[in-house]
Amino acid sequence: MPVRALPNPFRGLVSLFYPAYCALCSAPVERDETLCCACLETAPRIRAPFCAKCSQPFPGAISDAFTCANCEDRVLHFDAAVSAFRSRGVVRKVMHDFKYGHQLHLRHLLGHWLAETMNDPRLAGRRFDSIVPVPLHPARKRERGFNQAELLALELQPAWRIPVQNVLRRTRYTTTQTQFDRSERMENLRGAFRLRRGCNVQGLRMLLVDDVLTTGSTLSECAAVLKKAGALSVHAATAARG
Ligand SMILES: [Zn+2]
Ligand SMILES: [Zn+2]
Fold this sequence. Notes:
The protein is an alpha/beta fold.
């Protein structure tokens, strides 16, 4: 089921109602900017070395036999999960205000940070047939009023010209995972996702999108469902990495 973005005239109209001040420090900015240059520059980028599988940054130099502590002893079903920024400081604040403060206009800035994943060699030059947002359980989506992954995926659609398709559904209402460790998260999510009835992903190259990657368990569960249904490849991109 294809998802459509808000029409452009509506976007323009919405921007009129937001004051042109930096969302963090209240310095004046241009109408189409969310943060001032000084605040933007503090966004913590993920720089090498980092894990090729899950983008976990690693202090110091790494050897060829490098094993990431996050990926160790488990199978992650996505081919690679890419983030350009850490979920710290300004990035964490913007994400929080977007998700829990319902400041939906922040999706443009988060979408910009998400789009930077495409400069990463693991994604650059690859062709994708479909962008798939990580689904929320319908009850959670009703509570929040939106699926943050879907709004961010839609930010990618115009530039990338790849359809955003909600081919997955979340069948279990899982409690918040923040206090769980890695193995508890994996257990909590087992069987939580299904392919939507009538969706066919056979032979497709898919890009999963979520707001933030913490341990990678959610993206891995989604990737497992897509691959079992015949997807050719499943990469993942998130606006930030925990
Ligand atoms: Zn500022
Ligand atoms: Zn890793």
